[in-house]
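User: Some background: our group keeps a shared notebook of sequences we're curious about, and every so often someone picks one and asks for a predicted structure to add to the entry. Today it's my turn. The entry only has the sequence so far, pasted here. Could you supply the structure so I can complete it?
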Amino acid sequence: MINRLITKNVLLASLIILFVAGCAPRWDIDNPYESVDWTNHNQYKGNLHTHTTHSDGRMNPHQVVDTYHELGYDFLAITDHNQVTYPWTQFSDLEPSNGSINRMESAPEQMPENLIFEDRDPRALGMIDIQGNELSRHHHTGSFFNDHNGTTTEVESLEAVAAKNGIAMLYHPGRYQRRDPGHYNLEWYLDLYENYDHLIGMEVYNQGDRYPQDRMIWDSVLTVLMPDRPVWGYSNDDMHHLSRLGQNWTVMILPELTHESVRNGMENGLSYFVYAPQGHDGPQPPVIQSIEVNNRRGTIDITASNYDSVTWISEGNIVHTGNTVNLNELEATGNYIRAKLYGPGDIVVGTQPFGIR
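Assistant: Of course. Here's the predicted structure to add to the notebook entry:
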């Protein structure tokens, strides 16, 4: 009788273990959008790389602000080369660069009024003005929420930005892959991202799609660092003149539009990026309406509007097509996966990477 009771208890315990194991999540998916309330949060459009005649741009600061405002942008970082064009309310205290002055003298048809600066009040415009500049004495780097003006090396600049509680992203890495691949190799990028947590991302689309290698470098970095160290992707105009304004932007999904919420969104990947080859005169891009992650089933599901197709990428390779990806059904995947939505007019919308364990 005792042996039968022991056997019965062992069988019961085994069944419980099997049941619990069957219900337990098979996957641990790091969802950057986990904190997003897709129903109640708003989507805000912005650009994090643009120039004025305070450095080598062709438009003065207030014209840049006015133009982005007219196109419905909610946040903007003016990132003049080694110049902090900030605050917007004190544009008139700044002066055009010598290069801009010389350019206007040699080509007066380029509107000399671009050398006159007027103040702008971001609160009156309903915009978030992000303090920033492009650190340009080395691999070009976007610096935000601080007034550091640039130093000689990447390490010096990143340490200075950190000391001022700023954040940073690497701009157009494909340019350096093209110019000096021996120096700017994968190990070089990995070293920076592994040592500087405030280096939050990199450009994956720049000035249209000037450097397709941007995404190759991004995927190579993600392949090594994910899932523990995400690197967020951004699409930026790198605007120097009007013809390059409005092809690239980032959409933040936030509970409110404040400096603090935009910074939190930048740091935590609460965004998706857009590349629209025809700019704002072209078709409307896809809009991501929700992203649902199910760890138990191993699925990620995207609901969107105005799109033609969805592809899923891991380790730089397309591993699936369709709104929903089921990790159990993939032949092989790495430690991350990201989605690209294609819309009319060759528009591309990209998610941030999901870590996979």
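Suggested note for the entry: The two ends are 46 Å apart (CA to CA). The chain has one domain: 27-356.
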